[in-house]
Known about the structure:
The protein is an alpha/beta fold. It is 43% helix and 13% strand. It has helices spanning 18-29, 55-63, 78-83, 92-101, 112-116, 133-160, and strands at residues 6-12, 38-44, 86-89, 109-111. Strand 1, helix 1 and strand 2 (38-44) form a beta-alpha-beta unit. The model has no long low-confidence stretch (mean pLDDT 95).
Amino acid sequence: xxxxxxxxxxxxxxxxxxxxxxxxxxxxxxxxxxxxxxxxxxxxxxxxxxxxxxxxxxxxxxxxxxxxxxxxxxxxxxxxxxxxxxxxxxxxxxxxxxxxxxxxxxxxxxxxxxxxxxxxxxxxxxxxxxxxxxxxxxxxxxxxxxxxxxxxxxxxxxxxx
Length: 161
């Protein structure tokens, strides 16, 4: 907990597609009365520093009635990992990379699908960057599936504090 907030860090590669969409989805999924108790943020293992979310990621989110247009990409940094109560990656390779690099946080780093399903699903979420609108939709649907499973787990964690 940082300043009374549960901090969740989503990590992808460039931090312009999957992880910003996951942040938006989680904020949309959480009940209004607890949104101020959760700080969802994102970063990338090879971030396109300072870039906005991709146009198609923004479009898909707008179509689902939330806005990620103010997102600015940033790289994963030790300070982000230190403050995070939970770090969720999009791929198994990202998970392993972070566990090696930030060994002090190994017990807080999981694959999104793995954490959301309690370990029964370990599917990676494909990167739609540079792909079609349909691929972005598929990515968004998969993220929404896991975030919907994740939200009650986050609620349970903040209610314990």
